[in-house]
Amino acid sequence: MSNVDKAFSNNMVEFINNVKKGGIPDTETISFKSPNKSNRIGVVKKINGYDFYAVYAESEDKAIAYVKSMAAKSIVFGIVLLIISNIITMFAVSIPLKNLKYFLYQSSIQKSS
Questions:
Q1: pLDDT at 58
Q2: For position 88, what pLDDT does the model report?
Q3: Coil, helix or strand for 1?
């Protein structure tokens, strides 16, 4: 049994071999169960210029939690950005409107006199 067989499940070993043979592009990911029965997501990348492959596997729960965290942060950032842009727009529009209101007020006084 090789070191790869001890660290990963059979379908991950097959995935690594398929990537090495060129049957699967190294941009693909795989979901598999680790030997301790936890769900994992793995990726295999060829290291350019060498005959080595980097294997990275992460807990599926951690990956999903990270994506959810980034989504929540993006939503909060978007809301803050929307509020700031509305405030800037409000000031940018209100100043010319005040001048226009003053101008209309002055012209109505001149017409009435």
A1: 86
A2: 93
A3: coil
pLDDT band at 112 (very low <50, low <70, confident <90, very high): low
| Full residue range of the structural domain in which residue 25 is found | 3-60
Q: How many domains does the chain have?
A: 1
Model confidence at 49: pLDDT above 50: yes
CA distance 113 to 107: 10
Tell me how far apart the terminal alpha carbons of the chain are, to the nearest angstrom.
103
Which tokens in the block code for residue 5?
Answer: 């067989």
Asked whether residue 8 is domain-assigned, the answer is yes
What is the reported pTM? 0.54
Q: Where are the alpha helices (DSSP H) in 8-112?
A: 10-21, 60-112
Give a yes or no: residue 31 inside a domain: yes
Pairing verdict, β 29-33 and 39-47? antiparallel
In the three-class reduction of DSSP (H, G, I as helix; E, B as strand; rest coil), residue 88 is classed as helix
